[in-house]
Specification:
4-stranded antiparallel β-sheet; globular; mainly beta; Methylamine Dehydrogenase, Chain H
Length: 377
């Protein structure tokens, strides 16, 4: 009897262990879990979580934001060869009012000399060469800017309110003069009848050739608005979309006049002709709720991914067909300036500690070349 009960216990224990291992493997699809001889080092807090990974133009450095919400934010500078964090640049606090926080977005200037960070009420300008803050430009104490892009000549940074969180009773598109480091324009989002909108824009991109800004309308998520930076004219409902399902991600190929937008709930990639202002093709993405699209610098490849999946779908933009699937776990994905490398950010959790890992992959084969945890400084 004892032996029978013992066998049942061992059988149950084996099943539980298998289930736990399966759960760990499923989690590892999107987050690396390190269970090795460095685990004790991770417990000491030697590694940090960052967000918004951005590479330098030459690929020798990475930049990531440490911290979140209102204060204790820093920009980490990492050596891409050694994996060491070489500099921590303290960022200004975002605590103007209870509804402002961030940072939300970060990007490199076209010439690679400046990094711009958007955080609700501020555009923070970082000098990449000297590794220091060059300027902090206020977009208004009631701003709620979450998305940003830079004009082709690098002279303007465009940011947009996501919603009226500060009591403006309307939302704005903010244009920053990056030469004078001042807010040059605040363009309100108003209806044709002059009424105000308290829902702003979920995301935006700038056409580097025409200086037109394309914005996902946060009011309904079913249309694209267009702002002409030259005339300052804003046109709402300029390009209709096929759904209103929490659309966030978009990318633009200025040379071909194409806009790429992910519709997550419909598993679709919309390809939009920005001159004709209409969807010219919709590509079905057979992957777990795709929500992000990134273009290669030459526009020949579109990389579709999701932080719910470990697969990156590669689309040939000329044939508009999916040509391969790469196994690349990613919470954030960037392409090198030569298009040959993929940079990603993943997160690990163990013993109550969490940290970020930077990964470098071959863009053609998906083979991992290098990875390293982000050192805390």
């Amino acid at each position: 009897m004892f032996i029978l009960q013992y066998k049942k216990f061992i059988s149950m224990l084996t099943a539980i262990t298998a289930a736990l291992l399966m759960s760990t493997n499923m989690n590892a699809a999107t987050h690396d879990v390190h269970l090795d001889n460095q685990s004790e080092k991770y417990k000491t807090g030697d590694y940090a979580s960052i967000s918004h990974l951005t590479p330098s133009h030459d690929g020798t450095e990475f930049y990531g934001i440490y911290g979140s919400y209102t204060d204790n934010n820093s920009l980490y500078v990492m050596d891409a060869v050694t994996g060491k964090t070489t500099k921590k640049i303290k960022l200004p606090d975002v605590n103007v009012n209870p509804n402002t926080y961030g940072p939300f977005d970060m990007m490199m200037s076209p010439d690679g000399k400046m990094i711009y960070i958007i955080a609700s009420t501020k555009v923070i300008k970082i000098d990449v060469v000297n590794k220091e803050i060059s300027a902090v430009i206020s977009t208004g104490q009631k701003s709620s800017d979450r998305s940003m892009d830079i004009s082709g000549d690098g002279l303007k940074a465009v940011a947009a309110d996501y919603a009226d969180y500060g009591g403006n009773d309307e939302t704005y598109i903010h244009i920053v003069d990056t030469h004078k480091n001042i807010l040059s324009d605040a363009i309100p989002k108003r209806s044709a009848q002059g009424g105000f909108y308290r829902a702003g824009f979920a995301n935006l991109v700038v056409d580097k050739l025409t200086n037109k800004v394309y914005l996902i309308d946060g009011q309904t998520d079913d249309s694209i608005a267009i702002l002409d930076l030259n005339t300052k004219k804003l046109q709402l409902n300029a390009i209709p979309l096929s759904s209103s399902a929490s659309i966030w991600s978009m990318a633009i190929d200025s040379s071909r006049g194409l806009l790429y937008i992910i519709e997550p709930d419909k598993y679709l990639l919309d390809i939009i002709d920005i001159n004709a202002r209409k969807i010219v093709e919709q590509v079905k993405i057979n992957e777990m709720r795709p929500d992000k699209v990134t273009l290669s610098p030459d526009g020949n490849r579109a990389y579709i991914h999701s932080n719910r999946s470990s697969n990156v779908i590669v689309l040939d933009t000329k044939s508009r067909r999916m040509i391969k699937t790469l196994y690349i776990p990613s919470d954030e994905l960037q392409i090198s300036s030569n298009g040959k490398l993929i940079y990603t950010l993943t997160y690990s959790h163990i013993f109550g500690e969490s940290w970020s890992n930077v990964h470098i992959y071959d863009a053609e084969t998906g083979k991992e070349i290098k990875s390293f945890p982000v050192e805390r400084v």
